[in-house]
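Risk register update: the risk of archive-format incompatibility is retired. Evidence:
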Amino acid sequence: YALVPAIVDNSAYWFIIARKDLQISDDWEMASMVATGSVTIATTNTFVPDGWGIEITKLMSATGHSGTFHTEDIYRQSFSVLAMAVPSISLGALDAAVELGRERLRTSKPFGISRIERVPSRIRWVRAYEAARLARLVRDATTEDAIQHAQSGHPLTLVDEARMGLHGISLMQGIKDAARLLVDGFGTSGYRSDDQIRRISSDVA
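Archived output:
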């Protein structure tokens, strides 16, 4: 099965569609995203029974849907809390790149001079390190705010949702820029196809 979006009476819905009723096009040719297994899906003249569709606004609401309600606050989390998943994964990748860069400052010695002795390389590494530290503070604060809302029983307002989305976008942009700084900080070797930092930068981008 797959979740397929569609417009009904000017409202956006998600519908559950059986795989046998889907046309699948393997056309997701995006750099560094082959591992996602993403494809384009479509369906034509497909009958969807009652109960196999829901308005997206209801699905994303912490309390406004028609499903079963649970007392545990984890079930009152806004759907948008999942927006912190990708920045969190990318932040972990940036942490790995920063540590790889820390070691390379000592071991990379073009023309016999170690990178740690080169001011531009040190500055780029420090900026990436600080970007990772600040990103973690924003990610943790955003997640904690969502948890407190869920525990209070009050769903996020549109402003809260927008702020969380903005934090997610800002985190990803900052992480992407920081990873690229590390690549640029190690000269031509940073652009080798088998370089771990370059691969992390490409995956995050």
